[in-house]
Each structure stands twice: as C-alpha cells, then as structure tokens.
C-alpha cells in the first residue's frame, strides 16, 4: 500500500511540474520518475584503474549511508574493469549522489553515474563446447572429427 501511495504522489508531482512548464508530460520524464522511485543502487562507469572499493566508498559516502561499494575486477588478472556499483541505504541518497557526481572527476577520470539495471537471471546464451552442445558434442566443437580419425 505504501508503494502505491508513493507511486501516485510521485506521478502527480511529475505531472504537475511538467504540465506547468509546457502543458505536456513527456513519457521519458514519467518513466524516469518511476525508475528513480526504488533505485538505491548506482552504476559508476569510467573509473580510473587505480580506484579501489574503499576510495569508491569514500567518494560517495558524503551523500548518505553507503551499504556497499564494489569495483568490478577481471577474474583472471584481478585488475579493475573500469566500472563499479555503489549501494545506498536510501533512494534519496542515491538520487543526490547521481545528481552531484555524474560527470565529475574521480582519481583523474570523469565518471558516469546512472541507476543500475538489474541483470537478467536467465542464461545469456550457449557458448559452445561440452557434450551435445550443438558444436560437435564431446569432441569439443571442432567440426566433423571423423574425417581425421583414419577410419
């Protein structure tokens, strides 16, 4: 019920702000308002490779309680992939951090801050190999291996 009340008041506020300015309510503005409603997780792109979890947390802690700050690293090399995520305890903190930090410099690089999108839970596709995967079965996907068997 609280969700519905918040949703309704946010829609009314968006409509009144936009209709007062130009008489129309753009769909993108309305969708952004809905999206902002429950987003306390931010995507941070363009990070310097020297940025670690702690420096990312420190950069965003001035906007509210940071629950988690994580720089994503390559699983093989352990080096930063140049992006990360910051989770706030409240949506309001995330919104103020996004407004203030998007386009700002952090460790010598201008960062991009957006609301994080949820990753789909379904598998992203078949990458081949393995038994009966459609790419050669147990032979590892190297075509018709019978040609090389000598039979």
Assembly classification: single chain
Content-based structural category: alpha+beta
What about the largest sheet?
4 strands, antiparallel
Number of strands: 6
The helix fraction, in percent, is 25-40%
- The value of Rg in angstroms is 23 Å
Instruction: Give the distance, in angstroms, between the N- and C-terminal Cα atoms.
Output: 72 Å
**Helix-strand sequence:** HHEHEEHEEE
Annotation field: number of helices:
4
Overall mean pLDDT:
76
Low-confidence stretches: 1-5
- Spatial order of the strands in the main sheet? 2-3-1-6
Notes on the protein architecture:
By secondary structure, the chain is an alpha+beta fold. It has helices at residues 2-22, 27-36, 53-60, 91-101, and strands at residues 41-45, 66-73, 80-88, 105-106, 109-110, 112-115. The protein is built from four helices and six strands. Strands 2-3-1-6 form a four-stranded antiparallel beta sheet, with helices on one face. The chain has a two-stranded antiparallel sheet with strand order 4-5. Helix 1 (2-22) runs antiparallel to helix 2. The protein is globular and about 40 Å long.
């Amino acid at each position: 019920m609280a969700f519905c009340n918040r949703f309704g008041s946010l829609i009314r506020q968006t409509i009144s702000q936009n209709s007062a300015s130009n008489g129309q309510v753009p769909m993108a503005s309305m969708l952004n308002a809905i999206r902002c409603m429950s987003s306390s997780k931010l995507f941070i792109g363009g990070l310097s490779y020297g940025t670690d979890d702690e420096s990312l947390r420190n950069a965003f802690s001035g906007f509210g309680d940071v629950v988690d700050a994580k720089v994503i690293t390559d699983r093989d090399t352990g080096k930063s992939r140049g992006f990360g995520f910051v989770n706030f305890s409240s949506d309001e903190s995330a919104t103020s951090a996004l407004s203030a930090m998007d386009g700002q410099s952090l460790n010598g690089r201008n960062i991009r801050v957006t609301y994080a999108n949820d990753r789909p839970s379904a598998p992203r596709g078949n990458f081949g190999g393995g038994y009966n995967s459609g790419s050669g079965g147990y032979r590892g996907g190297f075509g018709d291996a019978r040609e090389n068997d000598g039979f």
